[in-house]
Design goal:
Blueprint (H helix, E strand, L loop, with lengths): L2 H25 L32 E2 L3 E6 L2 E7 L8 E6 L2 E8 L2 E8 L8 E6 L2 E6 L6
Parallel strand pairs: 1-6
Antiparallel strand pairs: 2-3, 3-8, 4-5, 5-6, 7-8
Length: 141
């Protein structure tokens, strides 16, 4: 069987799973989470370095980052189960916060656009698989 045909079959399977999940959740009054992805692993996966690893224990997860504003305090929350603080890296470029975390057999990477913040006020804390990043003061508009 050709590689192209295999990929087409996996796409069909992915669509069937997505349809079943959507119907099931719709019946419960819910929908699929915003960053929902189906990853079928096995065999050789080609792509760049940011592509999902063929080893399921080392998948790259892209969790949703939630931004909360409370007066001058900006709080970002990201679920990264199993991640350890020593393997958590934060990078701010302009108004984009990039989050990289590793641990528990999984790698995480995600990014989120921030409101104007003072980057030097950033404080992060990782507790029970939840990464909390706070910025103490907003940049005046």
């Amino acid at each position: 069987m050709s590689e192209e045909r295999k990929r087409d079959e996996f796409k069909e399977i992915e669509e069937m799973i997505r349809m079943i999940l959507e119907r099931t959740l719709r019946g419960q009054g819910e929908g699929l989470p915003p960053n929902f992805r189906i990853i079928i692993t096995g065999g050789e996966i080609t792509g760049g370095k940011d592509h999902v690893s063929a080893d399921p224990s080392r998948e790259v997860e892209e969790p949703a980052a939630e931004v909360y504003e409370d007066g001058d305090v900006i709080r970002v929350l990201v679920e990264v189960p199993g991640a350890v603080a020593e393997n958590t890296h934060l990078q701010i470029t302009g108004r984009v916060l990039r989050i990289y975390a590793d641990g528990g057999g999984c790698r995480y990477k995600t990014s989120v656009e921030l409101p104007p913040v003072q980057a030097d006020t950033m404080v992060s804390r990782l507790t029970h698989g939840v990464l909390e990043i706070t910025f103490g003061a907003r940049v005046p508009s």
